[in-house]
Design brief:
By secondary structure, this protein is mainly alpha-helical. It has one domain. Helix content is about 75%, strand content about 0%. The chain contains 4 helices and no strands. It has helices spanning about 5-35, 35-60, 70-95, 105-130. It starts with 6 loop residues before the first helix and ends in a 14-residue tail after the last helix.
Length: about 140
């Protein structure tokens, strides 16, 4: 179980709040303009964007105690895995659904807005963190 004050929990809360607010507004606008197809496109975009970015914070939590090389390898693996899964999902979305069932414009615009909201919230919450990073010893000191 994660501690309440760990940085990843703080970053997750800071990113989820603006993302869900923007997502609710985007879903409402897409539903009003495009009906059911807009609703499904915006809802699907919110799900995909939140999962995509939450995986990053989960990997960060997993790699807290790892050495830097293992952390780097895990980060690269998660990035490429997310990239391949997202590509596969988008290909499946375009081939297995019709434009009448899921509005692509609502999906795309919602995904872009949610990406900005998530990153803005994560950056704002990061700037509020008080992290004390250990400094390496000076040469000649033990």
């Amino acid at each position: 179980m994660a501690k309440k004050n760990d940085p990843e929990s703080h970053l997750l809360r800071g990113a989820l709040i603006p993302s869900f607010l923007v997502g609710v507004v985007a879903i409402a606008i897409a539903s009003a303009l495009q009906g059911r197809a807009g609703f499904l496109g915006a809802l699907l975009a919110q799900f995909i964007v939140v999962i995509f970015f939450a995986v990053h914070l989960f990997i960060s939590r997993l790699s807290t105690k790892l050495d830097p090389l293992s952390t780097f390898a895990l980060a690269l693996f998660s990035y490429f895995a997310k990239l391949l899964l997202l590509s596969g999902f988008l290909i499946a979305l375009t081939r297995l659904t019709s434009r009448e069932s899921i509005d692509r414009t609502s999906f795309g615009l919602t995904a872009i807005a949610l990406t900005f909201a998530w990153l803005g919230g994560e950056i704002a919450s990061y700037l509020k963190l008080r992290l004390h990073l250990p400094l390496p010893p000076k040469p000649g000191e033990n």
